[in-house]
Amino acid sequence: MTDLSHPPLPGALPNKRQVAASFSRAAASYDSVAELQRAVGHQLLARLPAAIAPQRWLDMGCGTGYFSRVLAGLLPASQGLALDIAEGMLNHARPLGGAGHFIAGDAERLPLQDGSCGLIFSSLAVQWCANFDAVLSEANRVLQPGGVFAFASLCVGTLNELRESWRAADGLVHVNRFRTLEAYQQQCAASGLRVVSLARQPHVLHYPDVRSLTHELKALGAHNLNPGRPGGLTGRARIVALVDAYEQFRQAQGLPATYQVVYAVLEKPL
C-alpha cells in the first residue's frame, strides 16, 4: 500500500467520527505514553516568534490540554481557547484548566469569529484532517492580521519500519497514511498565509519489542484507523511474521520507530 499524497483521495484518511471516538477512548491513557507528543510540541513552541503576545490564542487539537496549560503559563496576559474534536479529550482536559474555554469543534470548520485569534497552535493534530486546505483557510479566516498559525504534523515516512514489516508479513494496511512533505509545502504556499518556516525533522523512538510499540499506539488513540484496514483479530502466524520482519530493523537501543515531523510557522499578512 502506498502512502497518501496530495490531493487527499475520498475515503483515504480516517473519517472524523472514527478519529474522535478513538482519541476519546484514549484520553485516560494518553499522557502516560505521550513522550513524542511532548517533545514535538515543545519544539514547536521554540519555533514561535520571540515577541509573540496575542490577546487570544487557540490550542487546536488540544487533546488532554497539556499544551493549553503550557501556553497559559507562557502567555499569562492572553485569553486561551482549547478545541478538540474528541469529547473524551475535552472532558479530561477541562478540569485541569489552562484555557478559559474548552470547545468541541473541527479544525476544518472552526466555530470562531473572523479575526478572533492572534495565535493558533496545533501540535500533532492536523494529520487527521482529510481536507488540509480547509484547515489553512479556516486558520486564515480566524487569525488577526499579523497573527501566527504554528503547527506540527506527520508526513510520509512516519512509522516506516512498522509499515514495511507489515508489508512483509501480509501486505495489508496496518499503518496510518500521511501526506507528503511536498503536499504541505505546496498547500501552505498557496494558502494566503506567509510561510515563515517549514521543515521536516525525524524523531526516532526505540522499543524493546513490537508489542511495546503497538500498545503505545493504542494507548495514544493513534493505532490503525485507515479505510481498508484488516478486520477482526490478527492471526498468530501473521504476528510472528511481523515480529520477524521488524527484528531486521533492530538497533543497539532497541526497535526503532521513526516519526517524520513537519514543523511550520505561518503568518497572516498585515
Automatic annotation (TrEMBL):
Pathway: Cofactor biosynthesis; biotin biosynthesis. It catalyses: malonyl-[ACP] + S-adenosyl-L-methionine = malonyl-[ACP] methyl ester + S-adenosyl-L-homocysteine. Residues 58-151 form the Methyltransferase type domain. InterPro entries: BioC (IPR011814), Malonyl-ACP_OMT (IPR050602), Methyltransf_11 (IPR013216), SAM-dependent_MTases_sf (IPR029063). Keywords: Biotin biosynthesis, Methyltransferase, S-adenosyl-L-methionine, Transferase. It comes from Pseudomonas fildesensis. Its EC number is 2.1.1.197. Coiled coil: none annotated. This is Malonyl-[acyl-carrier protein] O-methyltransferase. Converts the free carboxyl group of a malonyl-thioester to its methyl ester by transfer of a methyl group from S-adenosyl-L-methionine (SAM). It allows to synthesize pimeloyl-ACP via the fatty acid synthetic pathway. Belongs to the methyltransferase superfamily. It comes from the Bacteria. One of its GO terms (biological process) is biotin biosynthetic process. GO terms for molecular function: carboxyl-O-methyltransferase activity; malonyl-CoA methyltransferase activity; S-adenosylmethionine-dependent methyltransferase activity.
